[in-house]
Design goal:
InterPro entries: Depp_CoAkinase, P-loop_NTPase. Pathway: Cofactor biosynthesis; coenzyme A biosynthesis; CoA from (R)-pantothenate: step 5/5. It is found in: Cytoplasm. The chain is α/β, with parallel strands linked by helices. It has ten helices and five strands; from the N terminus they run E-H-E-H-H-H-H-E-H-E-H-H-H-E-H. Strands 2-3-1-4-5 form a five-stranded parallel sheet, sandwiched between helices. Helix 2 packs across helix 5.
């Protein structure tokens, strides 16, 4: 299966772009969705998280206490790495399973931290970055999540710089408050290119 890795900074509009590909018949594998699933009530990661961090990080319904964990990992780099040591292998296994089961001309894997991970670029055929100005990211996340400007800047600071994300990209979609029809035109152009590449890959 031909695999396109879709990435972009917070507030870049990854989900909007991914959904535009989906309506064109392209299956999506979203690592954020998988991450939430494995930390939901009775999720695959929860017994390991409880054992590693303690019952206080498990909510009453058996899911991850996200607010408590977010506070911890933002202030403690070692804790972040301990959490990732649990979740990343499970996310990878679930991603690979969904890729194998995907039915379509090619598959898009949505990976917010594709560049940061250091391993994802070798697991996809193309890297597609959704790009916008930092000020656009800030405004979108403040509006969407109700975060302060300082909170959004702190999140952006933990992600790879925009320039590095663009340098790692094979393809770029610009989503800087353009009209929807312009965004759809970009998606259509990339979709046609990926159909051709996927066909060629299948014929090898």
């Amino acid at each position: 299966m031909f695999v396109v890795g879709l990435t972009g900074g917070i507030g870049s509009g990854k989900s909007t772009v991914a959904n535009l590909f989906a309506v064109r018949g392209v299956p999506l594998v979203d690592t954020d969705v998988i991450a939430h699933r494995i930390t939901a009530p009775h999720g695959l990661a929860m017994p390991h998280i409880a054992a590693e961090f303690g019952a206080e990080f498990v909510a009453a319904d058996g899911s991850l206490d996200r607010a408590r964990m977010r506070t911890l990992v933002f202030s403690d780099e070692t804790a972040r790495k301990r959490l990732e040591a649990i979740t990343h292998p499970l996310i990878r296994a679930e991603t690979e399973r969904e890729e194998r089961e995907a039915q379509g001309p090619y598959v898009i894997v949505v990976v917010p931290l594709l560049v940061e991970s250091g391993t994802w670029k070798n697991r996809v055929n193309r890297v597609l970055t959704v790009d916008c100005a930092v000020d656009t990211q800030i405004a979108r996340v403040m509006s969407r999540n109700g975060f302060s400007r300082e909170q959004v800047l702190a999140i952006i600071a933990r992600q790879v710089k925009r320039e590095a994300r663009l340098a790692a990209a094979d393809d770029v979609i610009v989503n800087d408050n353009a009209p929807l029809e312009e965004l759809e035109a970009q998606v259509d152009a990339h979709h046609q290119a990926y159909l051709s590449l996927a066909k060629g890959d299948a014929e090898l």
